[in-house]
Amino acid sequence: MSVTTFSLDRMVSAVEKVKARLLRAAQALDNAGLAYAVVGGNAVASWVSSVDEAAVRNTQDVNMLLRRGDLEKAKVALEAVGFIFRHVRGIDMFLDGPNAKARDAVHIVFANERVFDTDILPHPDVSESVRADRFQVLSLEALVQIKLTAYHDKDRVHLRDLIEVGLIDETWPTKYPPELAARLQLLLDDPHG
């Protein structure tokens, strides 16, 4: 068995690389005049940090919402700043350089589309976003909708983070269709799972 070297510097570097990737991609899309929104863990972290930065959870990847009709323009904009487009197993992504792995990428989800035919709602439109300091981030209500629709373990963790800092409360289930409302109510009833 090999000896593992633990390093605070490597931990900080990993977080900084995700941040730099997000900012570089957002700047490229902004410069190209394309509508987009940061979604996923970075969107959750943005919202959580607006209330309590100590409650922010790091994330390993960057997820962005785009309109499918803007993908070709996004390719031009993102490739100009060093990203490389790949379509792998049904996922569109921009790798952060020629030697990057899928984790070192900007993952694209498409506005107004369902990931699976069985999804209750499609993703919201990019217009349902607000400006953070250096990028567009999905509105809280739209972000919660995505998380409730996907409802994987990490989505439930993200929803619990939003509940914990008080961004979601007992009034929120009325904002969603019954099946999504029931999912949210379960988390509100038992936020520690």
Give an overview in words.
This protein has helices spanning 8-31, 40-49, 71-79, 140-150, 153-164, 178-189; strands spanning 36-39, 62-66, 84-88, 91-95, 105-110, 129-131, 136-138. It is an alpha+beta fold and 193 residues long. It has a domain at 8-139: Beta Polymerase, domain 2 (2-Layer Sandwich). The strands form two sheets. It has a five-stranded mixed β-sheet. Strands 6-7 form a two-stranded antiparallel sheet. A hairpin with a 2-residue loop joins strand 3 (84-88) and strand 4 (91-95). Helix 2 (40-49) runs parallel beside helix 5 (153-164) and helix 4 (140-150) packs antiparallel against helix 5. The longest helix is centred in the N-terminal third of the chain and has 24 residues, at 8-31. The mean pLDDT is 95.
Which CATH class of the domain at 8-139 applies here? Alpha Beta
Q: What proportion of the residues form beta strands (DSSP E)?
A: 15-25%
Q: Note the run of SSEs as H and E.
A: HEHEHEEEEEHHH
Indicate the low-confidence ranges by residue numbers. none
Radius of gyration: 17 Å
Mean pLDDT value: 95
Using the 3D structure, state the CATH architecture of the domain at 8-139.
2-Layer Sandwich
Summarize the structure.
The chain is built from six helices and seven strands, in the order H-E-H-E-H-E-E-E-E-E-H-H-H. The chain is α+β, with helices and mostly antiparallel strands and 193 residues long. The protein has a domain of 132 residues: Beta Polymerase, domain 2.
